[in-house]
């Protein structure tokens, strides 16, 4: 039993099922991020936890109490909305204490709670202002203050950073993480931004088409994606997924991949069970940062493969240079050091860290588990 | 407005500009003329009017016609002036406007934030109220008022005007609340506010502009209504418009035009006042949400 249990939960609108048997158990103090493209059902799931949407079947429990049919205000949750949803006619202070007032907390206690939260979020000087007179970042803080003041069991965040500009977004991201570390609260956070998901979470649920595709720690999701969708959704630039054929070189299973000119190269697998796939087609997944020049290859890796391929495009990004080549008939991106000597049209010796490579079944698109 | 935007793309000459303002001024004068005639003649002794020269300024200024129209002119059988009928109108208009506006706001709130199956159809049906001509409902309404015992009373008139007004007020508030962020309602729900608390504390305080629109519209329509007042009011609940008609139409004795003018202005004054006080909100309210603020 977790702190927050989502137990075999389904959501339908009429005959259309939009969430299929979701099973997630969140421990106390965990930071769970629901991530996925628009329409994947992540916001619907969050609204169901909040009580703003009905649960069609299954159960949602907070602290072992069944929440189906319980009014949002009685679940001891707090929610931060994408648009912040600050009451425009009330001052910041009134916004923060409105929930306490509705729950019948006496005024002196409300004032005290408001002061504490304002201090924590450094918004004391804003308490008498109306939301209309605040900047985006300030509104964001007030919205969090309104959630914090009630000291809820679970915090729900619905894409809280997507209305901020890029720089502020990064700052607030750090801010939220600090807050979580300081207060140790249980958080469920919805975003479509995979970087937010990776940086903030203790666990991620990647959702697509109403299914939880994978539930795991950021590292698990990144290194061992359950299927091609998760592999390409998480990480930027996305993981390269290349058609390849498995062959044997002595005892060693290798992936045979077509180079730009139609000739092939063989990349040896680290996973022995790939021998079972001898002679069959697979999809080979390689992260951009695992394709480098030889000098930059991971020294701790026991399996660095060499291949010479032609560079199509180079994109210097300051810290790195992204190199595009053709591999297995597809555009493949490599992430090189910025000082690597790469020129478009030249043949270049690449080093591929095959320890980090993953293989997918082309029919089911599921990862072939070693 | 910035200085740059006052410049026109193609240079409009000084002459053209003067011409435009001249024409506008002319039209303004033309439309002000009736008001001028009414005001000027309401402060003249009767012999100055009957002697011709309706357009002349008064030679002997007098407020007597106003006093007479207000408190002693013959209306129907009693020489009461318009005064009691003015209060009749107030007693009818204030509750009718208040009730229809509050109900319209509640309807708008439910139709946008507590949606249910068939709500659009219901809203469509309510809109019909805006298109039904008054004459059609006269007889059924009279029968209804008789059945519920409100015939010939002020409250009967209030009921009729509320029923007729709900269509408009619902339309106004529904469209206003349709663009009101639903996330605010959800946030308030999580904060523990109930149905009416959300309405009073969150929605209504933000409804100023549209409430003004609704109040002006309802006030003007109900105050100016003649047909319902003439049809359903009893002797002691007749509104101002009916009394004014009785004053002007009375066929005994001399026609006191100056008193009639004064009475007509008195009858029009409240709506004029409402519009002057709240008029700028009217345009603002009608335009609300049409452009990004």
Shape type of chain A: elongated
Low-confidence stretches of chain B: 289-293
Distance between the termini of chain A: 30 Å
Structural class of chain B: mainly alpha
Order of helices and strands of chain A: EEEHEEEHHHEHEHEEHHEEEEEEEEEE
Order of helices and strands of chain B, N to C? HHHHHHHHHHHHH
Largest interface: A-B, 22 and 16 residues
Question: Which spans of chain A have pLDDT < 50 for at least 5 consecutive residues?
Answer: none
Q: Strand content of the residues of chain B, in percent?
A: under 5%
* Rg over CA atoms of chain A: 25 Å
Strand order of the largest sheet of chain A: 6-7-8-3-9-10
Q: How many E-type strands of chain A?
A: 20
Count of beta strands of chain B: 0
Provide the β-strand percentage band of chain A.
35-45%
**SS content category of chain A:** alpha+beta
**Roughly what is the average pLDDT of chain B, rounded to an integer?**
83
**Total count of helical runs of at least 4 residues of chain B:** 13
**How many H/I helical runs of chain A?**
8
What is the count of distinct domains of chain A?
A: 2
Transmembrane segments (chain B): 19-39, 92-110, 122-142, 154-177, 198-219, 261-283
GO biological process, one term (chain B): transmembrane transport
Pfam families (chain B): BPD_transp_1
Subcellular location (chain B): Cell membrane
């Amino acid at each position: 039993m977790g702190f927050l249990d989502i137990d075999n939960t389904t959501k339908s609108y009429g005959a259309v099922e939009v969430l299929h048997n979701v099973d997630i158990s969140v421990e106390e103090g965990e930071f769970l991020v629901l991530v996925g493209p628009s329409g994947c059902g992540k916001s619907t799931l969050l609204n169901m936890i909040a009580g703003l949407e009905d649960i069609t079947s299954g159960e949602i429990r907070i602290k072992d109490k069944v929440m189906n049919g319980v009014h949002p205000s009685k679940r001891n949750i707090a929610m931060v909305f994408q648009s912040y949803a600050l009451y425009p006619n009330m001052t910041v202070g009134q916004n923060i204490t409105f929930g306490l007032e509705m729950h019948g907390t006496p005024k002196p206690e409300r004032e005290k709670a408001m002061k504490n939260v304002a201090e924590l979020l450094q918004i004391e000087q804003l308490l008498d202002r109306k939301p209309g007179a605040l900047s985006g970042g300030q509104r964001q803080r007030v919205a969090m203050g309104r959630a914090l003041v009630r000291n809820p069991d679970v915090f729900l965040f619905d894409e809280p950073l997507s209305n901020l500009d890029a720089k502020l977004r990064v700052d607030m991201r750090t801010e939220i993480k600090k807050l979580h570390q300081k207060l140790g609260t249980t958080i469920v956070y919805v975003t479509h931004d995979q970087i937010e998901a990776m940086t903030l979470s203790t666990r991620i649920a990647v959702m697509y088409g109403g299914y939880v595709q994978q539930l795991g720690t950021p590292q698990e999701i990144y290194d061992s994606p359950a299927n091609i969708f998760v592999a390409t959704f998480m990480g930027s630039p996305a993981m390269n997924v290349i058609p390849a054929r498995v062959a044997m070189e002595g005892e060693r299973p290798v992936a045979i991949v077509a180079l730009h000119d139609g000739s092939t190269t063989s990349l040896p697998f680290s996973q022995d069970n790939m021998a079972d796939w001898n002679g069959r087609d697979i999809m080979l997944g390689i992260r951009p940062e695992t394709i480098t020049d030889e000098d930059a290859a991971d020294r701790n890796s026991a399996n660095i493969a060499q291949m010479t391929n032609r560079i199509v495009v180079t994109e210097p990004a300051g810290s790195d240079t992204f190199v595009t080549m053709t591999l297995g008939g597809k555009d493949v991106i490599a992430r090189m050091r910025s000082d690597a000597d790469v020129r478009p049209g030249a043949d270049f010796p690449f080093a591929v860290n095959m320890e980090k490579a993953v293989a997918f079944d082309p029919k089911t698109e599921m990862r072939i588990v070693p | 407005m910035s200085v740059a935007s006052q410049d026109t793309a193609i240079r409009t000459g000084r002459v053209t500009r003067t011409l435009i303002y001249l024409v506008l001024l002319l039209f303004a004068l033309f439309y002000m003329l009736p008001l001028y005639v009414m005001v000027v003649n309401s402060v003249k002794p009767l012999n100055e009017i009957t002697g011709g020269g309706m357009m002349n300024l008064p030679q002997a200024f007098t407020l007597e016609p106003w006093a007479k129209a207000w408190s002693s002119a013959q209306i129907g059988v009693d020489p009461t002036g318009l005064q009691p009928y003015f209060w009749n109108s107030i007693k009818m208009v204030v509750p009718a406007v208040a009730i229809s506006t509050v109900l319209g706001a509640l309807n708008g709130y439910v139709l946008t934030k507590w949606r249910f199956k068939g709500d659009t159809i219901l809203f469509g049906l309510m809109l019909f109220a805006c298109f039904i001509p008054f004459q059609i409902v006269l007889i059924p309404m009279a029968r209804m008022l008789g059945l519920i015992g409100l015939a010939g009373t002020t409250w009967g008139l209030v009921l009729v005007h509320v029923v007729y007004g709900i269509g408009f007020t619902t339309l106004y508030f529904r469209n206003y609340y349709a663009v009101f962020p639903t996330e605010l309602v959800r946030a308030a729900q999580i904060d523990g506010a109930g149905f009416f608390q959300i309405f009073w504390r969150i929605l209504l305080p933000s409804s100023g502009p549209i409430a003004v629109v609704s109040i002006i519209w309802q006030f003007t329509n109900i105050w100016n209504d003649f047909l319902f007042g003439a049809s359903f009011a009893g002797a002691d609940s007749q509104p101002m418009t009916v009394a004014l008609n009785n004053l002007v139409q009375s066929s005994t004795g001399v026609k006191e035009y100056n008193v009639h003018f004064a009475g007509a202005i008195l009858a029009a004054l409240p709506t004029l006042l409402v519009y002057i006080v709240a008029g700028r909100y009217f345009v603002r309210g009608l335009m609300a949400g049409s452009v990004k603020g």
